[in-house]
Write a sequence for this structure.
């Protein structure tokens, strides 16, 4: 009887049936397909499943002796029936099932409304970009501006994610810069991935990654963009920007060229009050700042077949800065005037560089992600110079009669930079649910900074810095029916040599892990840990002593060491939908422990009244807090908001920094809605709490804007935006410094009489229409509803 029972159990053993769904043409995973397990011959339903973000589906109620088939349904694909072959064992893998896209023939399609489709994965959030957003945008960077959790500065176009600015930008997995995004036609943008927990594939000092995924079908034909922008701020104060791009695509290759530039002329006002013992210095200054930048991108994208992809890009970046500074300085001792002098400074800087990058990707099998990629990049500075003239004029403190004039002194610096970077990554999927990723990278940096100075109290050492860094990573990921998990580590070893001295060697193990769990379509959680590194910059290492004012000098520190951060994040995602309202909420908890923080320390030189500003590796600290990200569509109103509250702590550092606690916050929001005459109203608000940085605390006044966008029928648009209307000061910030020997409060602002933007952009596309566009599986057909939205 026991033997018969064992035989019966073996005959009717349970079996797990699994497989992968892909698009037959693009080989990309098909997400959200309905997969049904049917028992033959009566086709009775046994179990239902849905494909996850990797196209994987799993059935748990299979039987080894029964006969089954699977039926796959999706709104944009043809229904597919596949027989399940009988196999012994607990696992029955059907392999890859390729689905044929449905094709439809319409005389005309009118899109009355659309919404952003949000998909949460373990290490990233994926935003599908609907046509409405594309049509209301000027270029790829403007599309990015409308994505939740990402902030793009309207003035300087700086990009931050959750308040962090060390961001890596990719397009289709290839490293790019923000200027490259301006050459993208909005119709090319398919979706955007915001990676807040970067894997070991990326360098350890990257805080977040933004990957823009383009639609290959949109490469065909000739496309272009031309745009101009003007920002008058006040009398003789302005900023102007222009950009243009051309993109010509054939069946297997596309070429592009893009250029953009910016010029500005602003008067920066600074008021400073410094108290050191019985001595006090009050300074009022005005700086006439003339700044410009220019960028050119040229390249090609070559896809000879579905197994290979080649990208070549050459970019030129240049910046120039000319400043004329005029400052009045009033010195007091026990509240009695002791001296008055006027400082004149004329710093001029120029920075030019050429970057060449080559990217190659190969897939072994079009049905899986099995393959490798190689990326090489070389940067060479062309003309990086800095020169500053400085002199004082002294006055009688009572009668303001000129007593003396210093001779003009000069500081000069010339920097020669070379950087060579190479990286290769390998992906191996196996057993349907597991995937292994690994790679190695190399990075060689060399800085040569030649310094000269006529300042009597300053030495002028040069900086000869080289850094050879080798890295590698290995990670293993597993997909579950309702989630995923990834664990891995990056290893970096570097050899740093400064001024031909004995080199310093650093070895950094950088582990990371993340996972996600989906309870249902509306609720999911994510948990992530990563260890990151902060490396000192060339400016922080430069030992040149530079004169800031009559009583302050600044210099770099060539003995700085890397700092480290251990970051933990927990995120809960909730989707609320009723009627015409869609709200995505993402509350978050985070904790970050910081080791060997690099902070600027101001100290008084012994026996003098001169203060020195120099970066140092101060003691440890931590930051803990919570955040809330909101992405909502309420009828015709689109609203995004990101709020973070944090508690910061820094340990004692010698006698310079006392144990310090600081609470801070930041809130960024964006809203857009339609008004009559085919106009759209846009508004943005940015509030920032105090920011703690070593001895200093920085406070910023609110920044806000309101504007109108008009979209014309010839694919052009006109934007009129007012910055901080009714405010008399622009970008007003206050920095307070305290230590055992000095108190200093500095206010910096820009006077404004009116600050508004006029921006005109024209997009064009020439060539035959693409009759069959690839469907975006992250954006199902029910995104096109019958109500209008502000696009």
């Amino acid at each position: 009887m026991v033997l018969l029972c064992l035989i019966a159990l073996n005959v009717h053993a349970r079996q797990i049936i699994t497989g992968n769904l892909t698009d037959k043409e693009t080989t990309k995973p098909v997400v959200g397909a309905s997969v049904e397990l049917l028992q033959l011959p009566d086709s009775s339903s046994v179990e239902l499943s849905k494909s996850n973000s990797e196209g994987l589906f799993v059935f748990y109620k299979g039987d080894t002796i029964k006969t089954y088939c699977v039926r796959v349904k999706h709104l944009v694909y043809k229904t597919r029936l596949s027989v399940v072959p009988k196999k012994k064992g607990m696992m029955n893998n059907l392999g890859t099932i390729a689905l044929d896209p449905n094709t439809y023939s319409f005389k005309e399609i009118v899109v009355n409304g659309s919404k952003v489709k949000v998909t949460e994965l373990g290490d990233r959030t994926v935003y599908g970009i609907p046509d409405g957003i594309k049509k209301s945008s000027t270029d790829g960077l403007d599309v990015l501006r409308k994505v939740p959790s990402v902030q793009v500065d309207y003035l300087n176009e700086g990009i931050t994610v959750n308040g962090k600015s060390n961001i890596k930008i990719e397009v289709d997995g290839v490293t790019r810069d923000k200027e490259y995004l301006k050459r993208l036609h909005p119709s090319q943008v398919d979706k955007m991935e915001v990676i807040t927990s970067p894997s070991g594939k990326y360098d350890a000092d990257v805080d977040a990654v933004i990957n823009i995924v383009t639609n290959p079908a949109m490469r065909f034909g000739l496309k272009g963009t031309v745009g101009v922008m003007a920002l008058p701020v006040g009398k003789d104060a302005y900023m102007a920007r222009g950009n243009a791009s051309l993109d010509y695509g054939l069946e297997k290759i596309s070429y592009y060229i893009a250029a953009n530039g910016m010029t500005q002329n602003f008067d920066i006002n600074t008021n400073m009050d410094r108290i050191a013992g019985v001595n006090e210095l009050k300074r009022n200054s005005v700086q006439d700042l003339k700044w410009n930048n220019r960028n050119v991108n040229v390249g090609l994208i070559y896809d000879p077949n579905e197994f290979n992809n080649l990208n070549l890009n050459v970019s030129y970046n240049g910046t120039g800065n000319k400043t004329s500074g005029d400052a009045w300085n009033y010195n007091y001792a026990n509240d009695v005037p002791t001296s008055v002098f006027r400082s004149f400074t004329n710093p001029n800087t120029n920075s030019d560089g050429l970057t060449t990058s080559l990217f190659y990707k190969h897939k072994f099998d079009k049905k899986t992600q099995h393959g490798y990629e190689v990326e090489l990049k070389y940067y060479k500075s062309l003309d990086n110079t800095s020169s500053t003239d400085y002199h004082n004029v002294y006055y009688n403190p009572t009668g303001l009669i000129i007593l003396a004039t210093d001779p003009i002194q000069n500081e000069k610096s010339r920097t020669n930079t070379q950087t060579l970077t190479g990286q290769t990554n390998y992906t191996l999927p196996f057993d349907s649910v597991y995937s292994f990723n690994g790679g190695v990278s190399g990075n060689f940096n060399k800085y040569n900074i030649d310094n000269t100075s006529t300042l009597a109290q300053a030495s002028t050492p040069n900086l000869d810095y080289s850094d050879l860094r080798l890295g590698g990573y290995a990670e293993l990921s597993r997909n579950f029916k309702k989630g995923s998990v990834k664990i891995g580590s990056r290893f970096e070893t570097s050899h740093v040599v400064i001024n031909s001295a004995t080199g310093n060697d650093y070895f950094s193990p950088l582990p990371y892990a993340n996972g996600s769990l989906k309870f249902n379509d509306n609720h999911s959680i994510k948990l992530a840990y990563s260890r990151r590194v902060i490396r000192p910059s060339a400016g922080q290492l430069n030992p040149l002593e530079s004169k800031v004012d009559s009583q302050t000098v600044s210099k770099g520190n060539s003995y700085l060491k890397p700092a480290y951060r251990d970051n933990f994040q927990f995120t809960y995602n909730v989707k609320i939908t009723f009627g015409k309202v869609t709200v995505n909420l993402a509350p978050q908890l985070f904790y970050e422990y910081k080791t060997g923080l690099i902070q600027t320390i101001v100290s008084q030189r012994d026996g003098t009244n001169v203060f020195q500003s120099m970066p140092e590796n101060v003691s440890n600290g931590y930051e803990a807090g919570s955040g809330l990200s909101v992405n909502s569509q309420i009828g015709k109103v689109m609203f995004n908001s990101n709020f973070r509250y944090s508690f910061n702590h820094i340990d004692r550092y010698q006698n310079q920094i006392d144990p310090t606690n600081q609470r801070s916050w930041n809130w960024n929001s964006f809203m857009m809605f339609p008004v009559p005459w085919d106009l759209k109203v846009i508004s943005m608000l940015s509030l920032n709490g105090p920011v703690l940085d070593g001895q200093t605390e920085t406070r910023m006044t609110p920044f806000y804007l309101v504007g109108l966008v008009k979209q014309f029928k010839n694919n052009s648009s006109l934007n009129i935006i007012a910055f901080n209307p009714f405010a008399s000061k622009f970008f007003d910030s206050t920095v307070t410094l305290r230590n055992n020997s000095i108190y200093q409060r500095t206010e910096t602002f820009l006077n404004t009489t009116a600050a508004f933007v006029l921006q005109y952009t024209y997009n064009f596309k020439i060539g035959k229409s693409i009759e069959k566009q690839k469907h975006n599986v992250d954006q199902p057909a029910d995104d096109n509803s019958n109500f209008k939205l502000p696009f």
Notes: Residues 6-11, 105-114, 768-791 have pLDDT under 50 and may be disordered. The two ends are 73 Å apart (CA to CA).
